[in-house]
Sequence to fold (333 residues):
Amino acid sequence: MTMTVGRTTESSGTSSRAGTDVERIVLAPAEAGEVERLLDQLLGVARSRDAGSLAEEVRPAAEGLPLRLRQFLVRARQRESEVFLVSGLPVSTDLPPTPENWAAAERTGAGLREELVLLLCGSLVGDPFCWSTQQNGRLVHDVCPAPQAANSKTSASSLTALSLHTEDVHHPCRADYVSLFCLRNPDAVATSVSRIDDAVLSPETRQLLRQDRFRFHPDDSHTGTAARPSTGPVLFGPAAQPYLRFDAEFMSGLDDAASAAIGETEDSLRAAATGVVLKPGDLAFVDNYRVVHGRRAFAARFDGQDRWLKRINLTRDLRNSHRTRDVRSRVIG
Ligand SMILES: [Fe+2]
Fold:
């Protein structure tokens, strides 16, 4: 995989863009202080609410975030920015140890303040939602290496690379954005991203990828029987700037030509991949329709200081899932 680490540029107190790379805003200390004060106000409410009603509470509260941050996030949503990053967000100085797995985080409620940071910023980009089949239906996920999952094909892996993928590729209501807030990353493990616009594909392959010749399966992070495979194209939408649905590990071609196209697309996306190293206080948004993401393999420490991210799925309109079901809920499944 061709990977350049750290192609973003930073400039304190400003927003920036480096070529076609990651768009980033770096909060000034005074702006981070504004976020801290908002968190202080919300923390009591957060402790007494379930995740669904907390999400309702957080959206209007997000109007209290620094103006420059709000403008950055709203503009990124408006112009469908592909990968964008907020740096300099507050992370607790007394952060508890990295949990040994997501279930441990659920039990202890570790990192609630950081979950609020993610929900506040995320709510300006989309509506948070979750899956009943993933992490026990939690709205905010914990991404941390688990010893028992070191070689799995889930975000709890470490010794195995997470190949480039669309989040929850099997489902028509999958996220518009995946958001990742970094609490710890001591070994500078990069998140890889690859844009469909950077993939070099022949016109014949592009045409084939637009046909309903692919089956998409639930990935291994989904448990139970509620998650089902679906069939459709890999590419769709505007020809010049197509949308993408791809996860070579959890999809199959319905015929030999379609299977070959999966291999060609995977090679091309790998060749175009870039690495983004998230540091504590960095919040990344990845457009799940224009960019695939993954993570390189690494040796986890399992000492309470491992890489730890909080993650939420964001949709641009919750109603898209409501109209396919008989309930209104942020939990799909
Ligand atoms: Fe993912």
Residues 1-20 have pLDDT under 50 and may be disordered. Helices lie at 29-48, 51-61, 67-78, 102-108, 112-122, 203-209, 256-271, 319-322. The longest helix spans residues 29-48. DSSP finds eight helices and 18 strands in the chain.
